[in-house]
Design goal:
This protein has helices at 11-23, 35-47, 80-85, 103-106, 122-137, 139-151, 158-169, 173-176, and strands at 28-34, 50-57, 60-68, 74-79, 94-99, 108-115. With 181 residues, the chain is an alpha+beta fold. The two termini are 25 Å apart.
Length: 181
């Protein structure tokens, strides 16, 4: 999507157009974050670049492993099982791209999640993106889960994380509406 025509529009208009445009695409999801929150996310992901996201499907779940690129413009998601079975030959199934064209004029960053492999649905991609952002930007969750996962995996409480995610985050739509605040 070309953002140049939106330079003179209000931040609210840019957000609405960005989300409407991506809302109709079958293989993309979107999110808009204020610059300070996005910078906070990028800084934390640079320090702790890897995490996993459960994806809930029907009555079961599977995990995606996320990692940020060196340039901080891409966040890639892969199936954990793919990484286990072929650690040097896996392709991302979902990629979040960060667009900073609206930073100087509107103090926002545009995020687009591209579903590369149709093994996950649009809703599952949206939940993975929002869940990742929530866990990285919430101080308590970051300290409880992200830090141990990256610093000493033996200290990571997988069961507590999954319980927290299933009971607290994945079912509460109001948590998703906090991203612009």
């Amino acid at each position: 999507m070309k953002t140049e025509p939106l330079k003179d529009k209000s931040a609210r208009t840019v957000i609405d157009v960005w989300n409407l445009y991506h809302g109709v695409l079958p293989d993309a999801v979107s999110l808009v974050m204020n610059y300070q929150r996005a910078k906070f996310l990028q800084d934390r992901m640079t320090k702790m670049p890897i995490f996993m996201q459960p994806v809930i499907r029907d009555t079961s779940h599977f995990f995606l492993l996320s990692h940020i690129s060196e340039g901080k413009k891409l966040i890639m998601f892969n199936f954990v099982e793919d990484i286990k079975t072929k650690p040097l030959e896996y392709d991302p199934i979902f990629i979040i791209r960060v667009f900073n064209q609206m930073y100087s004029s509107h103090n926002i960053l545009l995020l687009r999640g591209d579903i590369v492999d149709n093994t996950i649905s649009k809703q599952e991609a949206k939940l993975a993106m929002r869940g990742l952002i929530h866990y990285y930007t919430d101080d308590n969750l970051y300290k409880a889960f992200i830090e141990p996962f990256n610093e000493n995996l033996a200290d990571f409480d997988h069961d507590k994380f999954l319980t927290d995610y299933l009971e607290d985050f994945s079912k509460k739509e109001e948590k998703f509406n906090e991203f612009l605040r």
